[in-house]
Automatic annotation (TrEMBL):
It is a multi-pass membrane protein. This is Signal peptide peptidase-like 3. One of its GO terms (molecular function) is aspartic endopeptidase activity, intramembrane cleaving. The gene is SPPL3. The lineage of its organism: Eukaryota, Metazoa, Cnidaria, Anthozoa, Hexacorallia. The keyword Transmembrane helix applies. It is found in: Endomembrane system. The chain crosses the membrane at residues 20-38, 74-95, 101-125, 137-164, 170-189, 196-217, 270-289, 310-333, 339-357. Its main location: membrane. GO terms for biological process: membrane protein proteolysis; signal peptide processing.
Length: 381
């Protein structure tokens, strides 16, 4: 009798709109970000070094930053969890003091990232208006930008301003999606070794701060930082200008470091997924997608048969299984779960096993794209 009653509740749990949207949107962000990364590979590989040097002499530092990839090396993969832990503690202890600074930095990053997402649409809209859509316009100290880049930045800045004024969760999610896609498209993992070091380190980081931080800091540091709301910058400025009416109507804002989807079936229920749980596995999937393309080009050149099941298919299925497992665990234990505890094994282990069986493990463990002449540059710390 009890089993008959419980069964619909489990079905309802998986059919809840917030959980379905979390899974579907995270998969879309990873897949789209990987394809944008391949598009950037094709764009940058076709450019000549001489043209790039000439452009770098005239462009702003911001424009030069966006004209190449940022590759994580071995040392950075090892120390990134340490840096992330330090940043988490700063936000935990000093969030109230530095919340305006955190909100400002997040707004700027979100604006730049979302402009990257809007860029293809803006290129399509501006193409009929300009004979050469790649011609760059000089905008003072900001540097040189194409008309599409200017349009995307303006639209993104407008979205950020509306988000700051309203604090609506839909706009916050939109900016967070832009951050996810941009990071997956621009950040590169050069080898399976670096991918393994980075993901295992972040798994330990995630598990420690979710499960064990409360024993040291008397609070769940990860959950508290993720759910904190910052004072609205409009409210802060209104208080300084003694405009109490404006300050009272400006809501607090949640920083776009996570995706939040409220449930349509149950009021007050929502699903939350941190951006790191999308971006970090997404970087691994981007790496294997690039390797699949490299293998496909080699197979075409050698006129050999191509494998139907790719590394990307294997890892994407593993990501879905890991995300569903994390969802079930959070429902069973009625507590926040470190998603990377489930996502990392389900995405990384199938790739390693598949690479070993296919004889690609040695090549993937080192940098497989060096021989292909991939143009990379390393992220400075």
């Amino acid at each position: 009798m009890e089993q008959v009653v419980d069964e619909p509740q489990w079905i309802y749990m998986f059919a809840d709109s917030s959980r379905v949207l979390t899974i579907v949107v995270s998969i879309f962000l990873i897949v789209y970000g990987c394809f944008r990364a391949l598009g950037l590979d094709a764009t940058f590989s076709g450019s000549e070094d001489a043209d790039e040097d000439q452009a770098n002499q005239n462009d702003s530092p911001f424009a030069r930053l966006m004209d190449g990839f940022q590759t994580i090396n071995t040392a950075q993969a090892v120390f990134l969890p340490v840096g992330a832990s330090f940043s988490l503690l700063v936000m935990f202890f000093f969030f109230d003091t530095l919340q305006f600074f955190f909100a400002l930095c997040t707004a700027v990053l979100a604006m730049v990232a979302f402009s990257f997402v809007l860029l293809p649409i803006c290129q399509f809209l501006t193409r009929p208006c300009f004979a050469n859509n790649n011609q760059k316009l000089y905008i003072g100290f900001c540097g040189r930008f194409t008309p599409a880049e200017v349009m995307s930045l303006i639209c993104s800045a407008a979205l950020v301003m509306v988000w700051i004024v309203t604090g609506h969760w839909v706009l916050m999610d939109a900016l967070a999606m832009g951050l996810c896609i941009s990071m997956i498209a621009y950040i590169r993992l050069p080898s399976l070794k670096v991918s393994t070091l980075l993901l295992i380190g972040l798994l330990i980081y995630d598990v420690f701060w979710v499960f064990f931080s409360s024993y040291i800091f008397k609070a769940n540091v990860m959950v508290q930082v993720a759910t904190q709301q910052a004072a609205n910058p409009v409210s802060i400025m209104a208080n300084k200008l003694k405009m109490s009416s404006m300050a009272n109507i400006s809501p607090q804002i949640s920083l776009p470091g996570k995706l939040i989807f409220p449930s349509m079936q149950e009021r007050g229920r929502f699903s939350m997924l941190g951006l790191g749980d999308i971006v970090m596995p997404g970087l691994l999937l981007c790496f294997v997608m690039r390797y699949d393309r490299y293998k496909k080009q080699a197979a075409v050149a050698a006129d050999t048969e191509q494998a139907k099941i790719t590394y990307f298919h294997c890892s994407l299925i593993g990501y879905v299984v890991g995300l569903v497992t994390a969802t079930v665990a959070s429902e069973v234990y009625k507590a926040a779960q470190p998603a990377l505890l489930y996502l990392v094994p389900f995405t990384l282990l199938p790739i390693i096993v598949m690479a070993y069986l296919k004889g690609d493990l040695r090549k993937m463990w080192q940098d497989p794209f060096v021989a292909a002449g991939a143009k990379l540059k390393f992220l400075e710390v």
